[in-house]
Design a protein that fits this description.
- Pfam families: Sel1 (PF08238).
- It comes from Thiorhodovibrio winogradskyi.
- This is Sel1 repeat.
- By secondary structure, the protein is mainly α.
- It has two domains: about 1-55; about 75-153, Alpha Horseshoe (Serine Threonine Protein Phosphatase 5, Tetratricopeptide repeat), CATH 1.25.40.
- The protein has nine helices and three strands.
- It has helices spanning about 5-15, 15-25, 45-55, 60-70, 75-85, 90-100, 105-120, 125-140, 140-150, and strands spanning about 5, 30-35, 40-45.
- Strands 1-3-2 form a three-stranded antiparallel β-sheet.
- The chain starts with a strand and ends with a helix.
Length: about 150
Amino acid sequence: MPTIHFDTAMAITGLGRTSLWRRISTTPDSSETVVPAKGHKRTRIDLDSALTWAGLTLNDADRALITAADAGDAAAQRELGMLFLELSLPERAAHWLHLAAAQGDADAMQWLGKLCARGDGVELDEAQAIAWIKKAAEGGHIIAQRQVAELGL
């Protein structure tokens, strides 16, 4: 059974911490406790359970995308954000795009700028939109570079 981190399960399902713990406690075999090298216990969530709680049916490629994003792969995080945009779940998309952007992914930065400019999944914030688009342009994103030039920034 593929498992994901607790925080990833929250981001996939849209559930808060308490609600997710409630689901885990009422669903047998939906989680496992692991003890990493530093000795702290960590709860990992069964991917199938998380997808069921989220009401999502995904193909194998999309499921692999989730496990790669969970492992910290910026490109997978960006693509997972795009998947959530396609599914009309912009709040969940913004989470994954933020993670990818924090790792320097210019595409994710440009998309975050769009979301901030529209207030889609995040608060409407023109200053933040411009900041993300400028960062994307600095990172070599061609569309963002054109946007910056057109806005005279």
